[in-house]
Specification:
By secondary structure, this protein is of the alpha+beta class. Helix content is 23%, strand content 35%. A hairpin with a 2-residue loop joins β8 and β9. The longest helix is centred in the first third of the chain and has 16 residues.
């Protein structure tokens, strides 16, 4: 190797180290982190989808989950997990949207998205891809609120109400669905009565538990279902 070539190689190595290239790779290898993101080019793997365009600019409201902004999150894509991504969840079309700097905003390939998480404030939403098998009760993306011997899921849905604003503009509105897995069975649940009927074998004990702890179950707040499932799972062990 010539002296000039050696100097060039040393300069390149120096720049890589100064920019944090080597430390980032070493960190990923030594912390057992499942996040695979050693360099920005890895994110190109995620660009397997369609270019996104907003087709609903004339509809009041928006089609997104939580807020009409890109949220920080992670995606498990074809078995590999990528973190620190900018994501939007379109719950009208049940699609995940990704923004990567210098690339067009895309709709991610749903067949390759295993799951994803979104962060808003102190809350993390863990959303799985339940698939699109028409024989399944639960399909597409669903938020996992509780996962034990039984499980609780919420399917977020937005619909469009025609001419709902002053008789001139259409309006987005949200109409969510709650699902419970009991054993191998997946059931859509609407309200406290159907929830208690689902756990018929322990209904009296659950009623007493809710009354004793002053717990109210509300369809509009799926998180209030969690204590019921936790208690049921604890008494059937």
């Amino acid at each position: 190797m010539t002296k000039s070539a050696l100097y060039y190689l040393i300069s390149v190595l120096f720049l890589i180290i100064c920019r944090g290239g080597f430390p980032e790779v070493i960190l990923a290898a030594t912390t057992n982190s499942p996040v695979i993101q050693q360099n920005p080019s890895d994110k190109q793997i995620l660009l397997n989808g369609r270019i996104w365009r907003n087709q609903y600019s004339q509809v009041s409201g928006d089609q997104f989950f939580l807020e009409n902004i890109f949220l920080k999150g992670s995606v498990t894509f074809n078995g590999r997990r990528f973190g620190n991504l900018d994501l939007k969840y379109d719950i009208y079309n049940d699609e995940l949207i990704l923004s990567i700097e210098t690339y067009p905003v895309i709709i991610m390939n749903k067949e390759m998205v295993d799951s994803f998480s979104l962060v808003l404030g102190n809350r993390i939403f863990h959303i799985i891809n339940a698939g699109n098998d028409t024989s399944n009760v639960l399909k597409g993306y669903a938020n996992v609120l509780y996962d034990g011997p039984s499980s609780l899921y919420v399917k977020y849905i937005k619909k469009i109400q025609p001419l709902a604003v002053d008789g001139k503009n259409d309006l987005f509105y949200q109409d969510d669905r709650i699902y419970i897995r009991k054993g191998t069975e997946m059931i859509q649940v609407e309200g406290k009565r159907k929830l208690l009927n689902l756990f018929e074998d322990k209904k009296k004990g659950i009623r007493d538990y809710l009354k004793r702890n002053r717990i109210k179950v509300r369809q509009k707040d799926p998180y209030t279902f969690i204590p019921v499932l936790e208690y049921y799972d604890s008494i059937i062990k």
